[in-house]
Specification:
CATH superfamily of the largest domain in chain A: Tetracycline Repressor, domain 2
Radius of gyration of chain A: 18 Å
Oligomer: homodimer
Helix content of chain A: over 70%
């Protein structure tokens, strides 16, 4: 045991729990999925799920590859030239989504949200309330609620096109290639004139 | 019987078939759904399904509320000021999706595409090949494949935000309110500099 109480193999156990959680949330949605059922599917004790993820909410956020502290993400995006905020946001979201431990994360997220209204509620709360609305507020223009919803439409649509519909050339493009294509859209929704 | 062979009640029968088709495609995806099973669910003979919709493909297109002749849609969008093409496209898509006979059409479409790779293939073929790519080609700029995929990302994302996630104010806004917000994005993807 290391001083922090971690054991060798923690990383593999954590990944097994995450994969079981993604499967369960994707198949059944947020509501019917229990910590107990995920633990059983991963072959571990429920207390270990809570040890790693704190709660069912924490497990859901981790299963969606959402950063555990959205405030840190927002603060990171806000550093740098305000004119490049849109491109930084494209790189930031794709960076998180492209490099998750399980490649089907975005598919799980979208499948869950589309099939189960309660999961759509959770996604709305996490993406919009915790990340996009604070970002729009920080950008300092009028009507941040509307701007955050517009941001969500392009970001969710990019995820749908890239990970679900696998539309080329969007599916194979690198974040650096996509940033100048999609970034100006996010920039306008954040700080532009909306008519 | 009218001269064309139509009977009173055709409209109700057609709607019953469409509703059964939307349910089946949404639950199972494109592949496993048969004309025979849809006919059975609607309480009609399979020949009547073929009478109305021609084929399983035709039934799928009708169930998705896709206009039966995409070429006519494209031609209609291309009439008028080329500078307003993006706003006309927003009004055109929302007009079709908002006013379908069954309110859950877009939800069915997205649920089917997200859950079933074969349905995603069909959606890609219909939306991209039949409508967005011809539109991008007609707009006359370089790299229409990339432009069509970008259009698809914003249009699918708008549908996701409005009909599935029901993000306000996008969910309740009228097409006339959304046209100046989303239109410039589509306009740039169609005719703008993409860097």
């Amino acid at each position: 045991m290391s001083p922090g109480g971690r054991r060798a193999g923690d990383s593999g156990t954590r990944t097994a729990i995450l994969l079981a959680a993604q499967q369960a949330f994707g198949d059944q949605g947020y509501g019917p999925t229990s910590v107990r059922a995920v633990a059983r599917a991963a072959g571990v004790d429920p207390s270990l799920v809570l040890h790693f993820f704190g709660s069912k909410d924490g497990l859901f956020e981790a299963a969606l590859e959402l950063p555990m502290d959205p405030a840190v993400v927002v603060a990171g995006l806000l550093q740098g030239d305000p004119e490049d905020l849109g491109e930084r946001a494209v790189r930031g979201f794709l960076g998180v989504w492209d490099t998750g431990p399980a490649p089907g994360t975005m598919l799980t997220l979208l499948r869950s949200a589309v099939s189960h209204p309660d999961s759509a509620d959770r996604l709305r709360a996490l993406l919009l309330r915790a990340i996009l609305l604070p970002l729009a507020v920080a950008a300092g223009r009028e009507d941040p609620e509307r701007r955050a919803a517009l941001l969500a439409s392009q970001i969710a649509g990019l995820a749908l096109a890239r990970y679900v519909l696998r539309l080329e050339p969007l599916a194979s493009a690198t974040p650096d290639e996509l940033a100048p294509l999609i970034g100006p859209t996010l920039q306008r929704y954040l700080t532009g004139e909306l008519g």
